[in-house]
Each structure stands twice: as structure tokens, then as C-alpha cells.
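name: query_chain
kind: protein
chains: 1
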Amino acid sequence: MGDALKTFCEASRAALRGDPGPGGREQVRRMVETLVSDPAFVAAWLGADAPTGKRTLYQDPELGFVVLGYKQDKPHRSPPHDHGKSWAIYAQADAFTDMTLYRRTDGGEGAGPARIEVARTYRLEPGHAGLYDGPEIHAIDYPAGARYVRVTGCDLDHEPRLRYDLASGEAKVIESATAS
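structure:
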């Protein structure tokens, strides 16, 4: 593991041990902004020689948080989704990601009929990170060449999450590793 990544992981572990709640996660969000602004980190983990797609860079054996690197060669737009009970931080290293946050308006929870509406949209530029705490519904849209880091509170492959189908008005449990 490179020095910047190792330092980030150790500092994140300390922050989350000290405050496993919103304050600790906000500390991690600020630190990951520094990480994705480090040219040496970006070159080593997300640069020309890095594999395309998603790659696990680190998983903490004690606290379970996961650091993932993404190097995307094609544009992508995800459907609205959540991360179940886990939190997630998206941190942009190159290009941009347009974020759309939604709110559920039907008063329901879980899978089944669901109405959602756009609550906020914004763009993550290089060096910026956004924190999505628990069941916050969001969608991502990025161009070819986007590179970013996502830190999650746990391995999302083992966390029940929901994907929202705007056309059918249904929330469905995600059964794969990605929202789409």
C-alpha cells in the first residue's frame, strides 16, 4: 500500500474509532478530499497503469470500512439507489460526477411501491467529496475518463440496499455488487 493510502487508512481508522457517528465520517470525508488531491496517489492507484473499473484498495479488518478506486473508461448514469444502513463517501479525482439526491415522498420504507422526487443536484469536481449517510437516495452520472474514490462503512456486497425505478414507481432490493 502506498504511503498516502496507508496514511489515509490509518487516520480514517483513528477518526472512526474516536467517533463512529457523523463527526467521524465527516473527518473521513475531509481526509479523502486530501487523498484524491494528491497527484502521486492518483497516478499510483487511478492512473494510466491502473485497471479500468472498480478496485478494492483497502478493507479495514477491525471496523469494516472499504476504500474503492474507480477508473471509468465509459460514461455511466446509475439509477437512484441507497446504501442500506451503510454510509458512503464519493471523492472525485479526475473529471466530475453529477450527484442527484432524492427524497422519498410516499412515507414508505423498504421494497415495494415508492415515490421519490429530486431534492438536490450538484457536481463533484476533482478534490471534492460528498458524504451519503445510510439510506440517503442518490444517483451518480459521470463521463468517460472519470476517476474517483468511494469509501463505504462496510462491504456493500453484503448490505441490503434499494434501487428505485422511476418508471414503475418501485423500490427493489439490489442483489448485485452495483446499483445498476
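note: The mean pLDDT is 93.
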